[in-house]
Amino acid sequence: MEKPYDYLIVGAGLYGAVFAQQAKEAGQKCLVIDKRDHIAGNIYTEKVEGIDVHCYGAHIFHTNDQKVWSYVNRFTEFNRYTNSPVANYRGEIYNLPFNMNTFNKMWGVITPEQAQARIDEQRKAACITNPKNLEEQAISLAGTDIYEKLIKGYTQKQWGRPCSELPAFIIKRLPVRLIYDNNYFNALYQGIPVEGYTKMVENLLGDTEVRLNVDYLKQKTEFDKLADKIVYTGPIDAYFGYQLGALQYRSVRFETETLDMENYQGDAVVNYTDAETPYTRIIEHKHFTFGTQPKTVISREYSAEWKPGDEPYYPVNDEKNGALYQKYKALVNAEPNVIFGGRLGEYKYYDMDQVIEEALDVAKKELTRFWCGK
Length: 374
Ligand code: FAD
Fold this sequence. Notes:
The protein is of the alpha/beta class. The protein is about 35% helix and about 20% strand. It has helices at about 15-25, 65-70, 100-105, 110-125, 135-140, 145-160, 195-205, 220-225, 235-240, 320-330, 340-345, 350-370, and strands at about 5-10, 30-35, 45-50, 50-55, 60-65, 85-90, 90-95, 190, 210, 225-230, 250-260, 270, 280-285, 295-305, 315, 340. α1 (about 15-25) packs parallel to α12 (about 350-370), α4 (about 110-125) runs antiparallel to α5 and α5 runs antiparallel to α6 (about 145-160). The two termini are about 25 Å apart. The mean pLDDT is about 95. It binds flavin-adenine dinucleotide (FAD). The site of flavin-adenine dinucleotide has 35 residues, from α1, α11 and α12.
């Protein structure tokens, strides 16, 4: 019996929406489902007091890929937002990423030569030749002052462990710039959708049928009857019933508050780099879109230990989890009608541009047969 849809897409996040858009363009009929009560997955933005609030953490679009940039601009207009966060260390404000503005504030140096001399001097004084942990690696790359004020407390809060107990490879490369440039991303294109990410995903989905508040895994047999092929963007271990064990994630907890003032911190992103402040960052959402609303919305971000059942955020890229993922991946071969994609389906940290690129590539391979002859 013919099935009512060509593709069932599990997950209305960025990956699912891009695949759905491409399938529609290739003349395929899709049904998109999501267990949440909204589309857009983790890039979901919600209007509060006229401000686009990034509900699952601040998202700044940046890419070097001209193809991806042209693609997203078909579905939304981007503003000129440039990510230039600041660090607050016990009331002292420093520009990030570490650049000549940071060094000038830290040491009063004016020229790149003077800044480099300071870093070299501190590296030498610390007598580190072969960094054995994150603390030694950070000092040898940026010097003791930068480490103590801008790296130590923040990293400790992020990982829940002292830097001396963390592996050096976490900060193999530290962006240290000997130019006056506060632009965090070295990307050719950067910005925030002027109407919010949710609207962008809405435009990607167009008139494709979407059903919310439905958990595919709870009604798998019924849903599998609806389409010839499944695009699954949920967690890969959940798909296989955690039969080999649960993959681990790092989590973040957000405390969001509306304040009766126009401007709370003067920047979208402020990192709290001391160890005592319990949160790592405060996001003031209106600054992503240069908002002039009378109120403001802020989110405090707390690093949190992940436990099964929590919202999965960042995959843990260690040996144990990498090996477990490979075992799950081996089970995928027995599911020829299922495409596993996105950050959860592939257990991989993807920036938005990478997720789009991946979804476009997979869609191209999958849908070529329908495009031929069109
Ligand atoms: P998701 O958005 O997670 O979508 C998957 C969807 O599947 C979800 O909506 C989920 O509800 C649904 N689902 C899962 N299981 C089921 C099921 N059983 N049944 C039905 N539905 C299901 N990238 C950037 O480029 N710039 C940034 O500044 C940036 N900041 C980030 C900040 C944080 C805190 C995090 C965690 C990520 C950030 N990213 C950023 C990455 C970005 O969030 C991802 O690239 C993107 O959201 C991945 O999209 P996705 O479709 O793969 O996953």
